[in-house]
Amino acid sequence: MSNPFDSILDRIRGRRETINGDLHITSEEHEFIFCKSNDSITNIEEQLKTFDLPGDYVSFLGQFDSAVLFQHIEYGGGYDILSPQHVIKYWKSYSIDHPYYPIAWSSHSTGCICVDQDRIHSGNGYLTWVGSIIPDDTIDIDLTFTEWLDKLIEHEGKEFWIPAYEE
Fold it and tell me: Given 16, 25, 95, 153, which is the most exposed site by the fewest CB atoms within 10 A?
């Protein structure tokens, strides 16, 4: 049975292998690791019951517990799509205030991709970038998790939502 993220993951170029149930994709420069989820949707929702959860993000967590994206083969970095446990840990560690909670960490700009709970049902996307150095430094991304992941792969890991980014 295919999951809704198959077509997005198929666009990542590289050698694919499954190791202990986790999908590893390695290109000349980057590695991607999608860690298989062993949790039920109900268990995921229970772990994150503090938050209003978007359906596409829950669907991803039902397939993959977490992921590493665009990690450079030699230098590391990249993006971490956070496991439910790390969502809570980062939320507390970085004192991220309502309506935000983190779902991905960027080593490039040292910030979090957060769900803006006030915009989940807006129909215009709900993600916001929150800087870790200046938490009030936010950028509305106006995409859903699925749209963001798709666009991140399309832009080859470049932070397209940051104004300094020029294509």
Answer: 95
| Alpha carbons 10 and 165: distance in angstroms, whole number | 25
CA 30 to chain centre: 17
CA separation for the pair 107, 112 (Å, rounded): 9
DSSP letter for each residue of 57-107: HHHHHHHEEEEEEEEETTTB--EEEPPHHHHHHHHHHTTPPTTEEEEEEET
Q: State pTM to two decimals.
A: 0.90
The structure tokens listed for 76 are: 């590391």
Q: Which residues, at least 6 apart from 105, have a Cβ–Cβ distance to it below 8 Å?
A: 79, 80, 82, 90, 111, 112, 113
